[in-house]
Every structure is written in structure tokens, then in C-alpha cells.
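Bug #2210: C-alpha cell dump truncated for Elongation factor 1-alpha?
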Amino acid sequence: MGKDKVHMNLVVVGHVDAGKSTATGHLIYKCGGIDKRTIEKFEKEAAEIGKASFKYAWVLDKLKAERERGITIDIALWKFESPKSVFTIIDAPGHRDFIKNMITGTSQADAAILMIDSTHGGFEAGISKDGQTREHALLAFTLGVKQMVVCCNKMDDKTVTYAQSRYDEISKEVGAYLKRVGYNPEKVRFIPISGWQGDNMIERSDNMPWYKGPTLLDALDMLEPPVRPVDKPLRLPLQDVYKIGGIGTVPVGRVETGIMKPGDVVTFAPANVTTEVKSIEMHHEQLAEAQPGDNVGFNVKNVSVKDIRRGNEAADFTAQVIVLNHPGQISNGYAPSGDAAIVKMVPQKPMCVEVFNDYAPLGRFAVRDMRQTVAVGIIKGVNKKEGSGGKVTKAAAKAAKK
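Reproduced locally. Full output below:
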């Protein structure tokens, strides 16, 4: 992977069946992420279980269980390259149960691709109150993803037939909503595409001569590269922790601030476990150092998977909260939907947060209940708990003496 290229993390959001996995898979397939033989194998497997139209999505749906159900569950990390950038796709699933996954995924993204189903009926379902188009756009903005590209997908559908009028209608309605959420509509590009046929994905489409803007790949190359805070202390929220035979415990996550190198001594909160980093990998390549924005796995010594887990610890924190919709009771001077308040929150379980102004990625959160996002917020102040218990591994003690 070219270290001199800009590294961007993208999250793909949108309503279920908007064609996120197909369009994303197509991009990865065309931009060298996957070889032709693998795609042919996917085509054969997809046809065998009667889902031939899923071949590009297959690229992303690696897990067997996902394949058979035809939905993307876990956040799959895939990369593709343009002449200017290396993009890591964090494929955020569209089903309502999976918004939790989306929240951990979007907190790692530099930009979002909002996938819209342009078909008649499909767009209306996605943008409705029960659809996920609005919620995903709002969550992306709240979780700090300030750049967005909107794809009006399925332009090849027989209800659309590449019509400019449909593209204009969708751009107008979605643009107005994104403006209300907080995006600057002048900076959000709307691209009419077919994730299946490939129109306007990488090459310009002859089917839509009326569209004069960039292709999807060009639009992604026009995104502002993120500023990476290398001079702050290391903060690395964990996505997961794996036990790998012959290697040991491998936590996985994205470096948000600071730098991590093999030999560094790190502390995991809330377990308060201190140990040494043995090696760091990204996309199966060893790294001499991990910088902000890198999605990495790193091997740690003398620590079991039980000792470390996702999430971190605060005694209580003060946050600016906006109530979005309200399925039940919010007590203590309840604020109706759309209202904002400064709230003191005391977590029931160990949880790690930081002040938004110091560490933005760790200073945002969403409150969910009854499968709905009830409120979103940013953290203004944290009263941290002293770490109790915990352990310092032999490897860390040894490294500290060096």
C-alpha cells in the first residue's frame, strides 16, 4: 500500500437494499481490491444459491452466515486505490438492528457515501419516517463524519430508465434534509450511478449524457484529506479483540490520536491492564508505526482476550444532548423531540469517554432505546474514575526498565 498516498476511511450508509454492498463491491473489484478469479468464484456460488444479482456484494459478505441470509452483518474492512488515495471501506449495514455496528463503524470514518435507492417506491421507503436514510445521515453527521458523497443508485432500473427528472427530484429532497442535519449542501456531491452496471462509478456513463459532474471515484478523490492529530497522546478505540493461534491476543481498532510503535507500553481501560505492543499490522502488512486513521491489529504479550474489551471508563460526564425522537420516558425535566440540553450522565457500566474538544472521536455518542436513536450528544466535561485493580504484565515491566 502506498504510504505516500492519502489514506481515507469511508463508511457506506443508507436504507436496506439501497445497493450499498453491490456498489461498494463493484468499486473494490474494479480498483484492484479483488482478482477476477475470486469474482468468478463468487458468481458461481451466488448463482448456486439463486442470488446471482449479489455477485459484487459477495465481495463484502465474507462470513458464511451472512451469505446465506443475504445481508451484511459485521463491519468488513476492504480497501481500494485511486491514483491519489487509498480508501478503506467500512461497510455499514443497513438493517435497523445493525445501527449499533454502524455507530462503531462511523466513528472511524473520514467521509460517508450515502447510498440512495432511486427506484419508484424504493426512494420513498428509504426517506420515510420508518426508513433509514434520514437516521443514517443524521448519525453520520453527529458522529463527526463531516464530508459526504450521495449516490443516486439503481438509475438503470426500469422505473427510472436513467431519467434526469428522477435524479433532480431526489437531489432536491435529500439535499434539503442534509442541510437541516448540518451538512453544507454546496459541498455534497450527488452522483447518479448504477452499482450493478457500473454507470458513473469509475468511467462516465453514456446512458446519462445530461450529467456533467464527476464519477464516484473522482468525487472520492476530491474529498478533503483528514488532519491527523499525531502530536496528542495515543487513543485507540477497540473494534474487537481476537485470539489468534500461534500469535496470541490481537486487539483491533483505529488509531484516533497519537502514534503507536512496536515496543510501546500501552494501557487498556477500563481493565487497567498495561502491556507491551509486540507488532502492528494493517491489511496484512507489518507497520513500523501506526498513525491516526490507520485501522490496525496489534499483538500484545501476556494478556488474555478476557482482560480487554471494547469500551472504556468514566465516573460521570456532562454532555450537550439533542433529543431526536422519544419512544418512552426520559425523566428529570424531560425535553421533547428536537430540544437540546446540557445533561450530567452517570454510566451504569464501565465506559470510556473523553471531552469532545480534546479527542473528538471519543467525545460523541448516541442514545438508543427500542431500536431507535433517541438522542445524540457531544461530551463537554468528564469526571474520570481512578483505575482500580488491573495488572502490569511482565513484558510491560521489562520494557519500562529499558
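Output looks complete on our side. Residues 238-310 form a domain with the Elongation Factor Tu (Ef-tu); domain 3 fold (CATH 2.40.30.10). Marking as cannot-reproduce; reopen if the truncation happens again.
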